[in-house]
């Protein structure tokens, strides 16, 4: 990869060295932001890196927040054509803007909801050539809207994430999620949020500057690593 | 989305301008409020302010002869096209006269739909919005007509669903999705104090553009010393977030806090406030009340 096109975020995540194998393979990356500072730019950057022309990565993008056209235009400005990537079966876009899971126990039926979504992801990965399994990234934008789609059933969302976590070990793929920290910081028991941070191998936070807004600096991104070695 | 202040209904000033502007431009309007008869509110919508061109006609004719070439083209237009209207259509304007009600023919037209959310459930409201927005599908062609949705005090306690926080979130998500795929814009105002802090944050994240209004206490001597023109201000407007559709570049405004003034008690005016530099060691300065001075530059905030 061209060293000159990398930045500090690439260096921090190990994306500035090699693309094959995908440095985030088998990892869970959690991006957290706030109302004042959106972390979606980190998501777009990782999407662009995962679809680098020098790699054979495949990305499954689960969109609860924006339509395809939004990401397409942003990535075009970053030099990545999502339409052609989709046509080449390197980019799979799951439009979840209108997904609404049925209430109560119906949410766990195979017919709809998060179970069906997981099944769709698993099927998509399984249909890929086996050689591609290790280079799959699953990106979710964003988890708070997934909770809304599940009618507030955070347990369903957590179960879904746990199942996706198994994919990181079964297929060695990476899981990248975006969520809003300030939603949970005011809760008495932010169970969902704590569990999500526990699941993450890499935690990236987008925060506003302590000194307020600036025209040339929009925020700061501290990164936290957590790594558990099981021997 | 606009976060209301329980101490003053300044959000209504914004809604009135928004709704009147849409009707004057020939756009369709769906208005929803907790009132039993929301249509009564339409009678308070303001009329477009008299155009400044009316005053320009009083200029010295000799002075006009000395005008440069570009301005001379004025004489090729008929007199009746200089009053802000062309071919009977109003030009885009943010200036409305709050003391003059909107003409009846704008309010009685078929382009307005009113829904009371006091007795309606969210499914009904969602269906009415869907039906309304189906008139303005987004396609690759030109925009033939556009629609505006104004939902006032969405989580007001009079509403039957006001305790159903997840359902309200679901509605906003659904509305956002429908608006995005149509040629329309929606404004939803809500009182944040009636929501739990966590859900208030969820609503804020839902918004493409997020504003808040705040009342100014009368006879606040401290503010009177800090702000010039304080006596004319009725409140503040804060811009917390600006829509970023099809882009990830944030909009950095010249100012995020505006004073709300009622000029001559009839025109809504928003003026930038410049916040004095804050010592970084004192912690976050965003959203805090620091020393302010009002800008001498008057700018109208595009709505």
UniProtKB/TrEMBL annotation, chain A:
GO CC list: elongator holoenzyme complex
Pathway: tRNA modification; 5-methoxycarbonylmethyl-2-thiouridine-tRNA biosynthesis
UniProt record, GO biological process: tRNA wobble uridine modification
Stated family: Belongs to the ELP6 family.
Descriptive protein name: Elongator complex protein 6
Protein source organism: Gossypium raimondii (Peruvian cotton)
Automatic annotation (TrEMBL), chain B:
Record carries keyword Cytoplasm: yes
InterPro entries: Elongator_complex_protein_4 (IPR008728), P-loop_NTPase (IPR027417)
Positions of region (Disordered): 41-64, 281-303
Pathway in which the depicted protein is active: tRNA modification; 5-methoxycarbonylmethyl-2-thiouridine-tRNA biosynthesis
PANTHER family named in the record: ELONGATOR COMPLEX PROTEIN 4, PAX6 NEIGHBOR PROTEIN PAXNEB
Native organism: Gossypium raimondii
GO cellular component: cytoplasm; elongator holoenzyme complex; transcription elongation factor complex
CDD domains: Elp4
One Pfam family in the UniProt entry: PAXNEB
Biased composition (Basic and acidic residues): 51-64
Official protein name in the record: Elongator complex protein 4
Keywords from the named record: Cytoplasm, Nucleus, tRNA processing
């Amino acid at each position: 990869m061209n060293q000159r096109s990398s930045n500090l975020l690439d260096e921090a995540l190990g994306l500035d060295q090699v693309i094959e194998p995908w440095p985030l393979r088998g990892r869970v990356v959690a991006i957290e932001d706030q109302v004042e500072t959106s972390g979606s730019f980190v998501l777009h950057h990782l999407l662009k890196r995962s679809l680098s022309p020098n790699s054979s990565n495949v990305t499954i993008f689960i969109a609860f927040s924006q339509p395809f056209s939004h990401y397409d235009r942003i990535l075009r400005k970053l030099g990545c054509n999502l339409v052609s990537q989709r046509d080449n079966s390197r980019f799979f876009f799951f439009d979840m803007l209108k997904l609404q899971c049925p209430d109560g126990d119906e949410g766990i039926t195979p017919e709809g909801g998060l179970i069906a979504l997981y099944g769709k992801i698993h099927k998509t990965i399984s249909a890929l050539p086996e050689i591609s399994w290790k280079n799959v990234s699953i990106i979710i934008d964003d988890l708070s809207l997934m909770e809304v789609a599940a009618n507030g059933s955070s347990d369903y969302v957590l179960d879904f994430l746990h199942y996706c976590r198994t994919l990181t070990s079964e297929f060695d793929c990476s899981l990248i999620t975006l969520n809003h920290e300030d939603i949970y910081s005011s809760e008495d028991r932010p169970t969902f949020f704590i569990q999500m941070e526990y699941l993450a191998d890499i935690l990236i936070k987008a925060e506003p500057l302590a000194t307020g807004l600036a025209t040339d600096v929009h925020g700061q991104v501290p990164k936290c690593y957590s790594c558990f070695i099981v021997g | 989305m606009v976060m209301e202040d329980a101490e003053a209904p300044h959000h209504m000033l914004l809604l009135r301008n928004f709704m009147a502007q849409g009707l004057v431009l020939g756009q369709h309007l769906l208005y929803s409020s907790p009132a039993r008869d929301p249509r009564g509110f339409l009678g308070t919508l303001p009329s477009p302010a008299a155009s400044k061109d009316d005053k320009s006609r009083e200029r010295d004719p000799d002075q006009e002869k000395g005008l440069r070439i570009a301005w001379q083209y004025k004489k090729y237009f008929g007199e009746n096209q200089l009053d802000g209207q062309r071919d009977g259509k109003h030009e885009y304007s943010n200036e409305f006269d709050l003391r003059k009600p909107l003409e009846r023919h704008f309010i009685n037209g078929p382009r307005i739909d009113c829904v009371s959310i006091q007795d309606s459930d969210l499914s009904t409201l969602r269906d009415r919005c869907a039906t309304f927005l189906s008139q303005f599908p987004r396609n690759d062609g030109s925009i033939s007509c556009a629609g505006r949705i104004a939902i006032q005090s969405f989580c007001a306690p009079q509403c039957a669903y006001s305790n159903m926080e997840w359902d309200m979130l679901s509605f906003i998500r659904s509305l956002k999705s429908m608006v995005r795929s149509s040629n329309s814009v929606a404004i939803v105002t809500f009182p944040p104090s009636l929501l739990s802090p966590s859900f208030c944050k969820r609503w804020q994240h839902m918004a493409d553009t997020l504003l808040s209004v705040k009342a100014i206490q009368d006879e606040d001597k401290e503010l009177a010393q800090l702000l010039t023109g304080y006596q004319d201000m009725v409140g503040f407007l804060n811009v917390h977030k600006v829509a970023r559709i099809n882009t990830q570049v944030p909009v950095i405004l010249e100012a995020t806090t505006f004073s709300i003034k009622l000029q001559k008690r009839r025109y809504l005016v928003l003026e930038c406030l410049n916040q004095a530099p804050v010592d970084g060691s004192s912690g976050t300065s965003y959203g805090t009340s620091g020393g302010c001075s009002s800008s001498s530059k008057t700018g109208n905030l595009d709505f």
